Amino acid sequence: MTALFSKSEGADSQPPVVLLHGFGGHHGVWADVRARLSPDIRTIAYDLPGHGGSLGLSEAVSPRRSALLILDDLRQQDVASFHLVGHSMGGAIATLIALSEPGRVLSLTLLAPGGYGESIDEAIMRRFAHAQSVEELADALHPMCGAGHKPDPAELKALARMRQLPGQRDVLIDLVGRIARDGRQGVIPGDLLSTLTMPVRMIWGDNDQVLNPNQVKDLPAHFRVQRLAGKGHMLLEEVPDVVAQAICDAIG
Questions:
Q1: How far apart are the first and last CA of the chain?
Q2: Residue 73 and which of 8, 15, 163, 214 are 20 to 30 A apart at CA?
Q3: Nearest to 63 by CA among 97, 105, 29
């Protein structure tokens, strides 16, 4: 069976921080965040099933199956416990990981996570899934970003290279149909979220056009929610300093 692709950085002296990107992304989207972390902090950034280096696992693109594969891969790497950070779809997967094996997750940091409300802009997602060239990707990402933010040209080129992988675009188009049906996404039940006991922090841009931050209701009392004025959905690129600080706070 094809193995999950991941890239580790930093020292190996403490429990690592596991990084899960969002729909259509890859491990490289964490570069700006990683650059702001101490080299003493070990990070493991995955290509999620059906994405980039893990494209061969396209049969396992569902969030639940992805969560199980990541847990198994971490077990194979002898990672007993870890901090967990997930963006968008990666946030939904991170939550499912925490629910599956809460004893291994030291903290949970969620960036505009999927699975916390039904509303999702299917049209924006489909446009992004179909985009292949740098120009098409820039146009597709524009409504995902907060006012005034422009995607990094190097990242656009990296995404375009990823889209050239045989079958990549088809997998993403199919995945949109699974996670954004008729403008709705699956919701993780609140009674399950209330069982999580590790520290949980949620960061959301109040100008997010993909996943409306206002739909989040009745979160467990210990969930810490941070709203960012004027920011959109692409928080890794828009506010890498805020994300890096959140990771440091979770470790500390």
A1: 37
A2: 163
A3: 97
> Cα angle at 110 between 40 and 46, to 5 degrees?
60
Q: Copy the structure tokens of residue 99.
A: 């629910």
Q: Domain range spanning residue 42?
A: 5-120+184-251
pTM more than 0.85: yes
Q: Which residues contact 135 (CB under 8 A, 6 or more apart)?
A: none
Would you state the structure tokens that stand for residue 105, as one six-digit string? 């997750």
pLDDT tens readout for residues 28-58: 999 999 999 999 999 999 999 999 999 999 8
Structural domain total, the chain: 1
Beta bridge partners of 225: 202
Question: 165-190, pLDDT tens digit by residue?
Answer: 999 999 999 999 988 888 889 999 99
Residue 102 in tokens: 């809460």
Crossing angle, helix 153-163 and helix 168-179, to 10 degrees? 100
pLDDT at 1 exceeding the cut of 60 = no
Residue 203 belongs to a domain: yes
From CA 44, how far away is CA 20, in angstroms rounded? Answer: 9
What's the distance, CA 151 to chain centroid? Answer: 17
